[in-house]
Design brief:
Order of helices and strands: HHHHHHHHHHH
Structural class: mainly alpha
Mean pLDDT: 91
Largest sheet: none
Length: about 300
């Protein structure tokens, strides 16, 4: 059946179907997985990023203590693991809300009321201990100290560097392009279905052969991306990245590995389905051929 008069159109249409299936899988993956805030919330939990941020803040304020003479505990006593965790989660959710137009601002927020009170109390106690009269310079110093501390905490909570990407203009560009991604995804799905229907129309008198052509298209469209994906996993490619910050390293490599694993799973499933279709065709074709031979060899009565 594969070598019948429809072989050439079947071959050409299946080749186009390979490209469309590949485009469909990639666009669906990007839209439903890579651009899903739940993916990055899961990465945050898997990589224990909130604890890494807390450790980084402890190191930062402890180091600053030697230059500012402000005890690290003035800041750290007001920042709990839960608050850091919630801030990172809110930052991730807000970033994707911004990308999809559900909000018009990209921001990271935390309640710094207690921190501000601690810093103000420290400066007030210190001023009293040296009989320093509070003036405009004093107020500016307090406000500047609070501002620097808050900016550092918010920057460290932004582990996926959304603000940096936004300042580079990437978020605004992505926000404009995402609607086109939806259109591209729908278009790829529709065109893939249309090609499948055309193949069905061409082979309407021998529908079983569709198992072969559909299977081939799925198999080839899966093998092509699986080659680099398997190489990445086999060599642990992303572990070679050099990033000084432990929290950023965990976020970046965790994200890349998560996305790689997701794509690997998707294409393996697609490959398995393709191989199954080809084998079902081979088995049914062999059974049909054997039945035809048996009928031919039966002696006439």
């Amino acid at each position: 059946m594969i070598g019948n008069k429809h072989f050439l159109p079947n071959c050409l249409l299946s080749t186009l179907l390979v490209l469309l299936l590949l485009a469909t899988e990639i666009t669906c993956f990007v839209r439903l997985f890579a651009l899903n805030d739940q993916t990055y919330l899961t990465i945050m939990e898997e990589q224990n990023i909130s604890a890494r941020v807390q450790d980084s803040l402890t190191e930062y304020f402890t180091t600053q203590e030697s230059t500012t003479s402000i005890p690290a505990d003035v800041y750290l006593s007001t920042i709990t693991d839960e608050e850091i965790h919630d801030a990172i989660c809110a930052n991730i959710t807000n970033a994707f809300d911004y990308l999809f137009g559900r909000t018009d601002s990209l921001k990271t927020e935390m309640d710094f009321t207690e921190l501000e009170q601690n810093v103000e109390q420290f400066f007030s106690d210190y001023a009293a201990s040296i009989d320093y009269e509070k003036d405009e310079t004093y107020d500016k110093k307090v406000k500047a100290t609070i501002s620097v501390a808050e900016k550092e905490i918010l920057a460290q909570a932004d582990v996926f560097k959304f603000q940096t990407l936004n300042q580079a203009g990437l978020f605004k560009t992505a926000r404009r392009l995402i609607p086109y991604l939806d259109t591209a995804t729908i278009g790829c799905v529709v065109l893939s279905i249309l090609l499948c229907l055309i193949l069905l129309l061409i082979n309407r008198k021998a529908p079983r052969v569709l198992l072969y052509w559909y299977g081939c298209a799925l198999t080839v469209s899966s093998v092509l991306p699986l080659i680099p994906l398997i190489y990445i996993k086999a060599t642990d490619y992303f572990s070679a990245f050099v990033i000084k910050s432990a929290r950023i390293y965990a976020a970046v490599t965790g994200s890349l590995n998560k996305l790689t694993n997701g794509m690997l799973l998707m294409f393996v499933i697609s490959l398995v389905i393709g191989v199954i279709l080809i084998n079902v065709y081979a088995i049914t074709a062999a059974a049909s051929k054997k039945a035809d031979q048996t009928n031919t060899e039966e002696p006439a009565e």
